[in-house]
Amino acid sequence: MISTFMIIGKDDVPLYEASFFNSKKQKEGSSHLSQFVIHAALDIIEEKVLSNENFFLGVVDNFNNFTVSAFVTTGMVKFVLLTENKNVDSTKAFFNDVYELYLKVILNPFYKQNSPIVSPYFDKKVREKFSK
Amino acid sequence: MNFSRYTSVFDPYQRITEPSFLKISVVPVGSISIKSFEHFFNKLKQIQHISHNQLLLKKCRANNPNIKQGWERGFIKIQYSKDKAIKSEWEEFQPHKKIWALVGIANSTIDIKQKKIRKDLTNLISNNKKKKKKHKRNGNNKGDIYQPIVRCFKIQNKEDENQNKENKEQKETKNKKDQKPSIFIPITDDDQKIELAIKQIVSDVVENLAQIIATPQNNWKSLKVPFKQKFSNEEQKNSNKSQAQYYKWVADHCLLTGLLEDARTHYNKVITTTNSSSDSIWNASSKESIVCLNILQNKYRSKEKLNQNVIDSYREILLIYKKKKIEILKIEAALKFSRFLLETKQIGNRKIGIEILYDLYSNSPNLEIDEMILLYLNLASLYEIIGFKRKVNFFFSQIAYLFKEKGNWKMLHDFILFSCPILNEINIQQISPSINQSTSTSTSLEFPLSSEKLSSLEMETLLSKSTNPIEFSNKIKNTKKWINIQIPILFELITASSNLEDYLKLIHYIIYLLLNYRSFLSESFQKKLIILIEKASDYLPLTTRININGFPTILEYNLITKNEEIKLNKIITGENENQQNKSDVFIFSPFAYKNKNKNKNEIEVIEYTENEKINLSIILSNPFEFEINIHKIYFNTNSKQFRPFPISLTIPPLTKEFNCLLTGNSLLIGDVFEICECIIEIYNLQFIHPIKINKKIKIIKSKPLLKITRIGSSNLNLFEGEYFNTSLLFENIGSKPINKIEISYQIKYDKEQQITENSIYQDFYLPPVLSFDEKLIKSNCPLILNQKFILPLKWCARKNLKKIDILIKYFNHSKPLSNLQKKIENYNNHHHDDDDNHKIGSVDNNENEDENKKEDKNENKDDTENKNEDENEDENENEDDQENEDDPKNEIAQKNEIEDENDIYFRISKIPYYLNITSGLSLMNFSLIKPNSTFLKDNYNFNNELKSFISVLELKNFTNMKFHLKIKILKKSENYNEKSSKLIKNEYNEYNKERDGTNNQTNGYNFSEINKINKNSKNIQKLSNKSLTKQKKIDFQMNNQIFQHCEKRLIFPIQNLLIAKQYSSKIPLEETIENFIQTIHSIPSEEQEKKLSQLVSLKSMLIERINLSWESENNRRGGIFLHNLVIKREHFDILTPKTVDVQLITQENYNVNQLQPLEFVINNTRKQEIKVQFNIEIFEKEKILDYLPNSSNYINSKLRKNRKNIEKFFQKEPYISKNLFWMGQTIRKNITINMNDSFSHTLYVSFFEPGEFTLRFNCSSLKKRKYFFISDKKTIQVK
């Protein structure tokens, strides 16, 4: 199973991308499709944000047994997770954890808004949180 | 259980009100043109509603009491389609899917047999004859009720109408006999007749429908539905299910015939009966129809939210279908309901619609590939309604991948282009989906988006903004952006075009991939792609043109005109800026906005002579990691006569700028064209790069054309007073010789100089700012073809100099007419006035522009360029004259004169030089002072001997360089008359003779060295070589030619009045003031003394200016001028100890007429003997009365004047001379006085009259060039 997590900033600029593979074989495959599904889900996320007060939007889209969950910050930065796991609670917990990490990133005075997150610490922590 | 296999038609285009439409299929029959078919089809389409009253129903009203209610109000809705009717298995469950009438449209001219037509048309209803089963109903004697009504419209002209009437009547009678209605309905282009015909057909259909509705349940048999096996007759009759099915059957047909209330009652019956049973599909289908009825009866406004009951019931329906796993029904229901919701444009409805769509694809439906494609197409079209661009693209890409599975590369290619519209910019050809394209494939697809819609979509918004390749050019670590989407898509395009054997597209896509995503591709992969291009190009015809920018990228281009500074044109100009930015992100233009403001109408015309090469400089770049081998590169113009000279190049990998010069020429005189494109041929492909230069090129008749090349920079950074040499290369590149070249220059100063006496004086005496050899120019004229010569220019940097324009006029005639010459001058004046507006750094002033300015004005007048190039210029000149000369008569006269001289013309080239003068070393003060104050006596005469003096220089060094210093004292030349120059010459001759005699080859008085030289005269040359620098040697040579330059610039030996030690020493750095003091310690020998005295005497007369020359460590040379140096006697009152003493010894009283002595004493304190002469002068009251003449040849000019006065005086009053006094013994010549000896002479004088007299005794050396003159003066009283 392949899971992809992306942070997408203003103007659909991807700020961060992490793919989580269970096996090496998966690595060769469909990162293309997963990104495309996430990209297509942005339309629905933008629609749902308007009618949802919470950061966490839940499952927003679905394609071929993959669910797309989203979490939108007040700055309209979108956290999107594409996974087969349909456990909403664990997804919500993951988003909350990443949000805390993200806050730390944007508090960094050297971080430029809407620029890619290249911090290795952030990457490491996100992967740790996902494995939980 | 997979129900989808039952279906052969998946109808995703249904609308929610679809069950109420009667479907009529219209097809062309025979060889009817598409245009006339479309024309009649559109006419049919206008007839959408037919009310029941209009129908010619006969039997059904009588036979069917059930449907009598509502019959008066209802109406039939008709849906026309051009589709070929395909037999569907769902027709009995969903009667609205059935085609109830098949209408053919045929041309009247073709005689078609009825049977054949009937057969053909009925075949159209089902493609599969074998599967077709005829259902004969009990109680239905008319045969198969499922058989649609088949009619054929035969188009007729109005004229034919009358003729056909008779035939028609005959046919009708025949048909009546046969009891078979004719399928041919003759129609004309008359709306009413068409309507009537349609009404007839619909009447027939409704008659059939009414019979179905009226069928009693007893006679009814179970339906053939794909999801259910047939019941046996017994079971059917008794079961509730069978009853429900019957009600639904009736209800469906009621709905079709517009009997809405009847339909509702029947549907309600179905629901009530099926609620209890497990027959949920029939229940759901009925509910679906009730929703349709609700919507039909309550027309919802576009912004009104749908009733919650309707939504809930529909959700329930979808749930039922989902539970029963009937995908077809579920998808169709979901699609038509969501379409209805999304089209209402109400936010609440839209939200529900999105949810329904989301359910539709969330769990991958178990459909076949074709059905999936249809589903995705519909999903894309629905998302397109609400503007979900990203979703649309996603589904398009999914469709593309489905086509890939089917091996349909064409559709893969097309759909990928739809999914990533930015790729359409590659612009190979217009690819738009059309019905023809889709029907040509195995599936019968109709693209949900019209091509119009597609083209109206904006490129940026259709995909996400981040897919814009501009953002990909910034490669950022750890983030790949959306390239995971885009690169695979491009790969798919490449594989598709490769499978389609469309190599042109293949090449385009590869280049696009390379250009935009090269930073994400490995070096080896890039090379592989290049090999792929190379291979693909083999399949293309020779030199296939490809309109793609950036391979390789042309950064800048520039038309190089004669003598012009390089002025680069950026590629993007004006309006095209935005477009170009889109198409090629790698061209950046910081000047784009600047160019926008420029007036585009101003197009320069540049003249080239026939056969002259037109040069275009181009800067290419190769951003790739492989080298680009350009087979040919050349530029093209819009002229047919243009002949480019292609060159081949290899651009190394990762080259930011690669300069190349392209050339070409035109053979047609009078041809005016523009450079339009640059063509680069790589791998058998022509890459076209459009080029826009706001300059037109005009080919003119050959002229003598002087090419002037500046050797060295146009910007001269000099120190004040520095000498600098540059040169100009003159070359005749025209076709005729140049007979005369005139060079002048114009100086521009930094600030407006105030004209003062000093400045005039300064300019007058300073060396010229620019000097060149005019003889060299004259000697090279006439300048024949391809001949060249170099003219050296000597610059002398002066303060405040800013710019010098060298104007070079050249003529084909050695003696231009006088008025022409005048015109040239006028032209120059005009020309100069213009130039004053230019600032430093502007490089606009060149030959071409000047000419172009002129010729732009006259372009319209140029009817015969070949003949009268010169005349045009003459006209121009006249134009210029108008400003200066107001007399029209003059003008005409001049014009006539010029016309006689057809071939006389001139050209002016202007070569600007920009001077940046900085202060280097400047002289603060210069003076000669006396070494010992004891000699400072007023009564010391300048003409006396010179022994020593001190020169003091006060210098300032403004730079951080070190200088060597040398002093020259120069003569003021111009003011000297012939006499003085002769004098100088004589003096010099003498001096040189003496110098030769003493074997003193040093040209200066470097005393310390002279001493050495005297000791060992043979080593002089060696010594001088050692001690003197290179520059000094040059001075030696100059001394030999000193007389040639005597009148202009006389260099005296005193020039090397240098400080021996400090000559080569350096002026310390950053010292503001440095004193150089020259002291002469040793007493010169007599010989030296003589020369010194001579020199000083000369100096007093001639020296006006002192020049200090300096040399820096990096061999830069220059000079400092002591301007306006007025040397007064006091300055040079350099005194020496008195070596010869004179005394006049007189008595205390003198008496009249009595001889009394008067004694002279000359003391020689010198170390050598002297030869002297003396005389005596007697004055009375300042008037000289007489003097004692001596025998010397030398007579002081002043005395000589006095002598004349005396003679005049004597002539007037002769008694005085005789009676005043008498001198006893007179003069003695050639008196030799030994060393340390004295000579005395007594003169006896008698005075004739009493009075007060002044006596002066003068003593001078005997030599012509006397070097001392001493006198003594006393006053005596005579009683």
Give a summary of the structure in a few sentences.
The complex is a heterodimer of chains A (132) and B (1279). Chain A is 43% helix and 27% strand. Chain A has 132 residues and is α+β, with helices and mostly antiparallel strands.
SSE topology:
The complex is a heterodimer of chains A (132) and B (1279).
Chain A (H helix, E strand, L loop, with lengths): L1 E7 L5 E8 L2 H5 L2 H20 L5 E8 L2 E7 L5 E6 L4 H20 L12 H12 L1
Antiparallel strand pairs in A: 1-2, 1-5, 3-4, 4-5
Helix pairs in contact in A: 3-4
Chain B lengths: L20 E8 L5 H13 L2 E3 L7 H5 L11 E7 L17 E9 L6 H12 L23 E7 L2 H21 L5 E4 L3 H24 L18 H6 L1 H17 L3 H17 L3 H18 L10 H17 L2 H17 L3 H16 L6 H17 L3 H18 L2 H11 L15 H6 L10 H6 L2 H4 L6 H4 L10 H17 L3 H15 L5 H16 L5 E3 L6 E8 L8 E2 L5 H8 L8 H6 L6 E6 L4 E9 L5 E10 L4 E4 L1 E5 L3 E12 L5 E2 L1 E8 L2 E6 L4 E6 L5 E6 L3 E5 L3 E10 L7 E10 L7 H9 L4 E3 L1 H7 L7 E9 L4 E11 L6 H18 L11 H11 L7 H20 L3 H13 L5 E13 L2 E9 L20 E8 L5 E9 L6 H21 L8 H9 L4 H8 L2 H11 L33 E5 L7 H17 E10 L4 E6 L17 E6 L10 E9 L5 E11 L2 E6 L8 H16 L1 H6 L1 E3 L7 E3 L4 E10 L3 E11 L7 E10 L1
Parallel strand pairs in B: 1-3, 1-4, 4-5, 5-6, 7-18, 10-19, 21-27
Antiparallel strand pairs in B: 2-3, 8-9, 8-11, 11-15, 12-14, 12-17, 13-15, 16-19, 17-18, 20-22, 22-25, 23-26, 24-25, 26-27, 28-29, 29-31, 30-32, 32-33, 34-35, 35-40, 36-37, 36-39, 36-41, 38-40, 41-42
Helix pairs in contact in B: 5-7, 7-8, 7-9, 8-9, 9-10, 10-11, 11-12, 11-13, 13-14, 14-15, 15-20, 20-21, 21-22, 27-29, 29-30
Architecture overview:
Chain B: Residues 364-536 form the Trs120/TRAPPC9 TPR region domain. Chain B: It comes from Anaeramoeba flamelloides. The complex is a heterodimer of chains A (132) and B (1279). Chain A is α+β, with helices and mostly antiparallel strands and 132 residues long. Chain A has one domain (3-127): Beta-Lactamase. Chain A is built from 4 helices and 5 strands; from the N terminus they run ββααβββαα. Chain A has helices at residues 24-28, 31-50, 88-107, 120-131, and strands at residues 2-8, 14-21, 56-63, 66-72, 78-83. Chain A has a 5-stranded antiparallel sheet with strand order 2-1-5-4-3, with helices on both faces. In chain A, strand 1 (2-8) and strand 2 form a beta hairpin. The longest helix of chain A is centred in the first third of the chain and has 20 residues, at 31-50. The radius of gyration of chain A is 14 Å and the shape is globular. Chain B is 37% helix and 24% strand. With 1279 residues, chain B is α+β, with helices and mostly antiparallel strands. Chain B is rod-shaped and about 200 Å long. In chain B, helix 7 packs antiparallel against helix 8, helix 11 (327-343) runs antiparallel to helix 12 (347-362) and helix 27 (818-835) crosses helix 29 (865-884). At the A-B interface, strand 2, helix 2 and strand 3 of A face helix 12, helix 14 and helix 20 of B.
